[in-house]
Amino acid sequence: MKFQKLVNFLLFKPSVTENYQSFASKNDEDVEIIGQEIKQIINDLYGGRSLRIRAVDGGSNNSEEIELTALNNAYYDIDRFGLSFVASPRHADMLFVTGPITRNLETAVRTTYEAAPKPCIVVAIGDGAIDGGIWQDSYAVVGGVDKVIPVHIKIPGDPPAPAAILRGVLEALKGKK
After folding, report:
1. Fewer CB within 10 Å of terminal CB in the chain, N or C?
2. How confident is the model at residue 84, as a pLDDT?
3. What is the CA radius of gyration of the chain?
4. How does pLDDT run across 57-86, given as a tens digit for each residue?
5. At what angle do helices 162-176 and 26-46 cross, to 10 degrees?
6. At 93, is the secondary structure helix, strand, or coil?
7. Closest Cα partner for 130 from 104, 164, 163?
8. In whole angstroms, what is the distance from residue 44 CA to residue 100 CA?
């Protein structure tokens, strides 16, 4: 009898998960529209191959990296839009730089930029990357990314949402077109 109760509980208990529609939002529609525009521009500019992105941490608090990781998860899945992250700057078409540039990482950011093939689009992600953020007057911080390498697009936020990052990528690609 106990076994039958257990089986009934496991098979016929009420669902504790919510359906997808309860999480759907205007943001989802925006991501799809932006993603399709990105895909079209990448197809025109790169002849069908993906746009390769190298993420560089200039001294961030890791919040921007978490949002970049979210771009790769199953929810946003930027690979379907023709965007992919690469491990080497030598393969990159675009650099995502996060965090204020610290004195310890200034040379590493510059070297990464120099190793990337030209023309390389540089995107400063987050308030720290734009102007140094709350650390801008610190002795350990050089400042924003533009103090070390040229920046094409700045995406504000602390951290910016994945949808905002995609909007910034679209803006950068439209500027290149």
Report:
1. N
2. 93
3. 20
4. 999 889 999 999 999 988 888 999 999 999
5. 30
6. coil
7. 164
8. 34
